[in-house]
Amino acid sequence: MPATIINRCPQLRQAVIPRLKKEADRLLAAHHQPGRHVSFVLVSDQEIQTLNRTYRNKDSATNVLSFSNDAQRDPMLAVTGSHELGEVIISVETARREATELNQPFLLYLVRLMVHGFVHLIGYDHERSPSAAQEMTAMEKKLLSTTITSFGRSHMIKLAINVDHVATIRQARLGREPDPVIAAAQCELAGAVGIVVHLREDRRHIQDRDVRILRETIQTKLNLEMAATEEMIAIARDIKPDMVTLVPEKREELTTEGGLDVVSFADSLDRAIGELQDSEIPVSLFIDPLESQIEAADDVGATFVELHTGTYADAQGDDEREEELDRIVEAAATAFDFGLRVNAGHGLNYVNVGPIAAIEEIEELSIGHAIICRALYVGIDQAVREMREQIGYGIEL
To answer: E strands, 156-264, where?
Structure first.
């Protein structure tokens, strides 16, 4: 194989290695290195500090080192016919700290360092001169944009707005205002690509009337969140939203708590999805970022999964948040590999949305509460536009 990932850092979970291997192979293929081999070695700060001290007279840890096996530098390689392009050494601990400081997903930041080290292997060196630094940066950008699509996404990730909590305010007085239908139109004008509403069994916010009028007035896409009950399936088949997202629902909960357990309820969900698809309604399942749930979602015939980001949003401290982010990154890649389309949502706000928006496989984010809260201060139009700016998040070299 053209790339090998070697993990020598106990702080890095083995589950991320297949994803890094995939990205490393894509990197070599993009730069036309057939038959050449590169080793990406993941180490601790202590190990990379030892390498720096031994080979660079620098007694400190850095994020990445490259050791080239260029035949021009070592004539014996030409004699032996070595196919080893070289090694890229990455400190996992330094990478994690830098990713946190830059508010970037850790796994994607590791890929960025892989690209940086690889570009050194093929002869670029930013330390030679300012012009050499510019050339190296240009090559990194090229590889990031053509190979690691999460860094160079050709389209901005889509934003769908959940207007449930406009209806929550209205229902507090059981009156007519504010109207979620009017709010939905304003969201569309501000650039939302879809409107999301959750018609609950207890009708605590969105009402049947809202869904019917929204179906007639929305110019983009109506995503109806609902439980997989006979009542809701009948309503959906009658109204025909552009898509349905099946979610778990408990009367006593304040908001949706966790994802749908597709594994345990596969038979009933299979029947519900079949009925909805008979009416030509695509179905998404709101699930926790677990491989078992993703596999079950594929088995029951879902078109989309929406990954639950609530645990990530509620995480306390950088380590816990990073661990939850890693789970979502891995789950998105797994769902994509199953052939499922991937959305995400729950608990996302203007502060924490960036790393989620950077995940390659996620097409669309569903955000409601944070935008409606901000709209109280700046208006819906401005609140939506500010969120669109936040999800335009990317990595600048």
So the answer is: 158-162, 194-198, 222-226, 243-246
In whole numbers, what is the pLDDT of the chain averaged over residues? 86
Burial class of 384 by CB neighbour count within 10 A (0 to 12, 13 to 18, 19+): buried
Total residues belonging to the chain: 397
CB-based contacts of 235: which residues, under 8 Å, 6+ apart? Answer: 199, 208, 211, 226
The DSSP letter of residue 168 is H
158-162 and 194-198 beta bridge pairing: parallel
Q: Are 61 and 93 in contact (CB under 8 A)?
A: yes
**Residue of 163, 174, 160, 71 whose CA lies nearest to 123:** 71
Reference 119, options 61, 211, 33; nearest CA is 33
**Active-site amino acid positions:** 198, 225, 346
The two tokens of residue 277 are: 């698809």
- Write out pLDDT tens, residues 119-161: 998 889 888 888 889 999 888 887 876 554 444 344 468 999 9
How far is residue 167's CA from residue 181's CA, in Å, rounded to a whole number?
9
Helices (H) and strands (E) counted in the chain, each on its own, are: 17, 12
| Global model pTM greater than 0.85 | no
**What are the extents of the domains in the chain?**
3-146, 158-390
**All residues at 6 or more sequence positions from 347 whose CB lies less than 8 Å from its CB, including other chains:** 309, 310, 312, 313, 314, 369
pLDDT tops 80 at residue 245: yes
CATH code, 158-390: 3.20.20.70
Question: Are 125 and 379 a contacting pair, CB within 8 Å?
Answer: no
Per CATH, domain 3-146 is 2.170.270.10: no
Residues 6+ apart with CB under 8 A from 172: none
Query: How many whole angstroms from its chain centre is CA 169?
Result: 31
